[in-house]
Amino acid sequence: KRLNQRFQIEMDELTNTFRQHTRETDQKQLDTLIALATKLIEFASRKSLSEWHRNELRDWTEELVMQRIALMAPETAKRLHQKYEESIAHVVGLSVEEFQKQIREIFEDDKDDQDDIFEYDEFSAEPSDHHDETYDETYNSDIFGDSVPSTQVMDSAWVKTLFRRTAQTLHPDREPDNEKRHHKQKQLSELLTARKENDLLTMIKIFSETFNGREIQLAEKEMAAICEMLEDQLNDLEFEQHAYALSNPERHLAYELLYHSNKKKRQEAIELWKQNLEQETKQNKELVKSLKNLAILKDVLQERRSQHHEFVDWLFDDIPF
């Protein structure tokens, strides 16, 4: 449990580092991102693109406009969004108004599966965190299911007796000495918390301390049940750590790209990632210059598609399904 608490603190720090440096880098290359998005939107109006080319182009444009530009220049992102809709409307032979009407009708027919071309409620310079808790719950439930249920050990007669005898002995009203009463109050609070959390080891520890190291005699069947329960609790804690790392996309990326249990190696990963961001900034500038025709665009889209598939495989290869 202590390791999980430390892990969550480390992941919060990493996620903040990831978010802050990513946005600082995007702010510096904002003009390049806008220029690149503008070029991609111009290509989106070409009718000779295949379906997978168009899907890849849509995802790329969505990433630039929705996930990056909108955070720093919401009005510009809104304008780019409108231009993209005009491009797609041109491809399907509709006016922008007719295209938007079709999109609205699709959403009304299937409100549970809304997937707008640019999926956001509004353009805002500040990121929205309102989705985190809902996303965390849904994401974790889909991957891990419900927590592993505890066995009936805690309902056993000997556990109830152990708890009752310990609680009675620790009752602070029976202790006249102020210092000892304070100590018993603390132990009783720990005992109550342990019972609530099915923490049998802590309950046994407090019992042993209260009764001067008295041993508890357990039958083989009871010991086997305790071991099974503790294994379930260890599995729960392991899943809890994975679930926290995957609880939202930004934290998941920070975990995969930057996290290491060793602090020195974690810092090395951060420095390498920062270098990669600088390299991507240079590549974006080169792309703006080099994207002059459909042939070049298709080559770039093919490369992005291959890299995306490799990245997704790597991103999820250690998730315990």
Could you explain how this protein is built, in words?
The protein is mainly α. It contains 13 helices and no strands. Helix 1 runs parallel beside helix 10 (220-245) and helix 7 (157-170) runs antiparallel to helix 8 (178-196). It is elongated and about 85 Å long.
Helices and strands in order, then pairings?
Elements lengths: L1 H27 L1 H15 L6 H22 L1 H19 L3 H14 L22 H13 L12 H14 L7 H19 L3 H11 L9 H26 L3 H10 L4 H28 L3 H23 L5
Helix pairs in contact: 1-10, 1-11, 1-12, 2-3, 2-4, 2-12, 3-4, 4-5, 7-8, 7-9, 8-9
Please describe the structure with a list of short key phrases separated by commas or semicolons.
321 residues, 75% helix, mainly alpha
Brief synopsis:
The protein has 321 residues and is an all-alpha fold.
**Anisotropy-based shape:** elongated
Share of residues in helices: over 70%
First CA to last CA: what distance?
22 Å
The total of helices stands at: 13
**What is the strand tally?**
0
Question: How many strands, which pairing sense, and closed or not: the largest β-sheet?
Answer: none
Work out the radius of gyration. Answer: 28 Å
Residue ranges: pLDDT <50 for 5 or more in a row? Answer: 114-149
Order of helices and strands: HHHHHHHHHHHHH
Task: Indicate the proportion of strand residues.
Answer: under 5%
Structural class: mainly alpha
What is the residue-mean pLDDT, rounded to a whole number? 81
